[in-house]
């Protein structure tokens, strides 16, 4: 006579239900948790190797998404594809949730999410309730550690993807067409997100895009409030500071990985933009 399956058997392969590591590469938390107690982690331009879907539930603030600056407030949904530059300032009263979603292109894993960033202001009460319900269900799956947690989390993520694509259709006619200068800035930000650790300078990016550095800088400033050089600097600085504060890699190795010409130049770069030396940043983070 065959024995009854245990709870471990019912979970299926890889369905550990671990909330800490995320389920099937999917996890959900507050936007504040993304900052890990440091405002620069949200407010400075950065990118992720996974997709993000942000849902703002309280407050208002500002955002730069792939080089375009805009206001952001309650019942705003923001989809940030992997490799997209983002800077977010919700202020002290703002609150929202962030769904972290895998960027796999494997047909068996792909959630059908869009390729382009999206900023949608959701005014329909039913759509607002649907979004809240899906995110609540994802949070329950993540914390309950029940059998088949992987499948449950993936099912909710698929619903999230369907919700997003439906809202994109409903908002297709919202707002003016993106001008050519803004498309240039978006293209520049995509290159920066991909190549920020290379030795390329701002002028090299301008040449790759077929424009002058002056034109690129003017377009970036108009779209984001930052110059083209500022955008590149912020992304490089974020990577440097993240490695300094979260790893034990030698500081010289970190500078080399970001293509700084010398340890002294790397140290001056960090000191100039943070007010602290790399070693001081690391010491303070360890405390």
TL;DR?
The protein is of the alpha+beta class and 287 residues long. Helix content is 48%, strand content 15%. The protein contains 12 helices and 8 strands.
Task: Using brief descriptors, characterize the structure shown.
12 helices, 5-stranded antiparallel sheet, 3-stranded antiparallel sheet, disordered N terminus, 2 domains, globular, Arc Repressor Mutant, subunit A, alpha+beta, Jelly Rolls, single chain, 287 residues, 8 strands
Uncertain parts: 1-21
Report the CATH topology name of the largest domain.
Jelly Rolls
Number of helices: 12
| Series of secondary-structure elements, N-terminal to C-terminal | HEHHEEEEEEEHHHHHHHHH
Structural class: alpha+beta
Strand order of the largest sheet: 1-7-2-5-8
Mean of pLDDT: 90
Walkthrough of the structure:
Strand 3 and strand 4 form a beta hairpin. The N terminus is likely disordered. By secondary structure, the chain is of the alpha+beta class. It has a five-stranded antiparallel beta sheet. It has a three-stranded antiparallel beta sheet with strand order 4-3-6. It has twelve helices and eight strands. The chain folds into two domains: 149 residues, Regulatory protein AraC (Jelly Rolls), CATH 2.60.120; 107 residues, Orthogonal Bundle (Arc Repressor Mutant, subunit A). The protein starts with 6 loop residues before the first helix and ends with a helix. 48% of the residues lie in helices and 15% in strands.
């Amino acid at each position: 006579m065959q024995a009854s399956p245990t709870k471990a058997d019912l979970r299926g392969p890889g369905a550990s239900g671990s909330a800490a590591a995320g389920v099937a590469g999917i996890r959900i938390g507050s936007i504040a948790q993304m900052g890990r107690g440091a405002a620069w982690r949200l407010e400075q331009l950065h990118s992720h190797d996974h997709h993000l879907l942000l849902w703002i539930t309280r407050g208002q603030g500002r955002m730069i998404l792939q080089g375009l600056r805009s206001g952001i407030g309650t019942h705003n949904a923001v989809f940030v594809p992997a490799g997209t530059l983002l800077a977010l300032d919700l202020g002290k009263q703002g609150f929202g949730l962030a769904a972290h979603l895998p960027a796999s292109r494997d047909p068996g894993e792909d959630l059908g999410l869009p390729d382009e960033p999206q900023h949608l202001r959701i005014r329909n009460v039913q759509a607002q309730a649907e979004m809240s319900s899906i995110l609540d269900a994802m949070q329950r799956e993540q914390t309950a550690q029940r059998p088949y947690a992987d499948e449950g989390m993936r099912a909710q993520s698929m619903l999230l993807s369907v919700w997003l694509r439906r809202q994109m259709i409903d908002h297709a006619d919202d707002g003016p067409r993106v001008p050519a200068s803004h498309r240039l800035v978006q293209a520049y930000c995509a290159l920066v997100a991909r190549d920020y650790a290379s030795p390329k300078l701002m002028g090299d990016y301008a040449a790759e895009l077929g424009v002058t550095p002056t034109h690129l800088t003017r377009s970036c400033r108009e779209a984001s409030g930052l110059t083209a050089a500022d955008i590149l600097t912020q992304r490089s600085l974020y990577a440097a500071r993240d490695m300094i504060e979260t790893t034990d890699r030698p500081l010289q190795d970190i500078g080399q990985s970001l293509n700084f010409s010398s340890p002294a130049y790397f140290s001056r770069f960090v000191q100039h933009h943070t007010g602290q030396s790399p070693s001081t940043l690391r010491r303070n983070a360890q405390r």
